[in-house]
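3.2 Worked example (two chains)
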Amino acid sequence: MKKFIMYGAGNIGRGFIGQLFSLSGYSVGFIDINKEVIGRLNSDKEYPVDVVSNEGLEEIMVKNVYGIDGTDIELVSDEIASADIMATAIGVNVLKFIAKPIALGLKKRFEKNAKPFNIIICENLIGADEFLKGLIKEQIPEYAEKVENEVGFVEASIGRMVPVMTEEKKQGNPLRVYVEPYNILPVDLNAFKGEVPSDVQNLYPYKPFNMFIQRKLFMHNMSHATCAYLGYLRNYEFIYQAAEDFDIKYVAYKSLIQSALAISKENGVEIEMLISHAENLLYRFLNKALGDTVARVGKDTIRKLSSNDRLVGALKLCEKHNVPNEYICIGIATALVFDPDGDDSSKEVCAYAKEFGVKATLEKYCQYTGEKVALIEELYEMIKNGKQISALVKVCEEAGGKQIRV
């Protein structure tokens, strides 16, 4: 049986990537520092994935799994050295901490002249492949050439929505995870070294892959965040409530079309495919059974408003291709008033905007000084003064939003 190593036993690792490899006949080892999760994986050797939709629930048991203690670097490196393929779903900020054990595992592979090895990188970061590769080269500089030539750093586009699991949803099992039915995993075909796995269900190698990275970040993540920030204005708790609201859906759809036009021009792909994806996203956001909250989806605006992330990155791509982008500005402006309890990052941005103004906030947190600063300032003041979403839409239409042509 082939071995797949999943660095990160969180909801994406268990509820998506690990599940696909297990269903494809691989033995799946999960690396994590959560002792409870690792212990339960090793005792049960299986875990439930609940595929939920508005039509009901289907429980799938993921088998042939085990846990690996992430604090035992020697054990981790041995597992990587003996694996056929691996993936990470650990969080962008944690990649720097796992570079050393991965590097040690690769070193052991090099020393026994193992075949080329591929690492599927399931992180929300443009350029995650080069970032992780650089971190690993720093750990084993003597093998830098082998890392370059024999290790594939394969970016993936994670589209499956997996909410935070409450104790009620877990039903006494810390391994249980809820997921939506969507389960396609696009990966960068050009990044593989050696054999491209053809035996993994729903793994979709594609080139050029940049389109999928942008589609995930500047369409899925951007519109999801927009629904969250506008939903917060209307005191909704769940994303599906925001997605049911006509005004919010209108802004999200217009934002999606603007971003889709820019992605189409950037990558030379047919706009019809991207529009179909936009419509599918808005349908998927209506999934009540996921129970995904506005607070979770909008959380951490310092990261989500950063220069190349979902909102400002989409705005900049539109500007690059002279595509109207006014509706994306609504999401940015609304993010500046998003400050739910327990979200220190968002509270910091909100407080800074209140004290120093929108222009200074966009420069500090977004590194944005472009032509839409004035519009975002206007929208922000309207929001602070209690104006309705329909009024924001009117301003955007007058500013150029009517020019959208598909």
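3.2.1 Second chain
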Amino acid sequence: MNKKERYARFIAYFEKAMPEAETELHYATPFQLLCAVILSAQCTDKRVNLITPALFAAFPTSEEMAKATKEDVLEYVRSVSYPNSKAEHLVQMSRMLVEKHGGEVPSDFDALVALPGVGRKTANVMLSVAFNQTAMAVDTHVFRLSHRIGLVTDKCTTPFAVEKELVKNIPADIIPRAHHWLILHGRYVCKSQRPNCTGCGLTDFCKYYSNKKT
């Protein structure tokens, strides 16, 4: 099976099985989504969703969070991974939004990655989810599944290399959903340690499954 056929079957499967894929993080505004994504680094969405209601009640906007101290925010985020650095990032990010962007989350990649706590993956999540732009955020799930399914080769050794390959081969209008197809399938079916191949609908074109059988 060539690359074009594999991508076509990947898209066809998820268009039918998961047509409305979206983030599992809870948020009401782009600012709240940005906070949630920063908090979700090396932490589960489930854990983040447990703490953000109280956090957003206390600091619903960038203007409100910009007035806070790191210690103020830390009280709400203690149960996530790396709470001290994340609390600091949230406060500094909010202050920069107020000072440079009128309190609004920018929809520009370069402006996003200039914010404290925002790297390439987080910026791409924001562009894709909040602004429906053609951006592919590559987290551990996306990286793992792209290799397992055979959407990318072993030569794609970095998240950026995987991102470029996926963007090149997936139609632009599908990329925001394809990001979530890979994340959700990796989260619930093709898990890191114990992939559930018997419950997977991709086995007829999955490179990992084909190699596993031989």
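3.3 Remarks
The chain has a mean pLDDT of 95.
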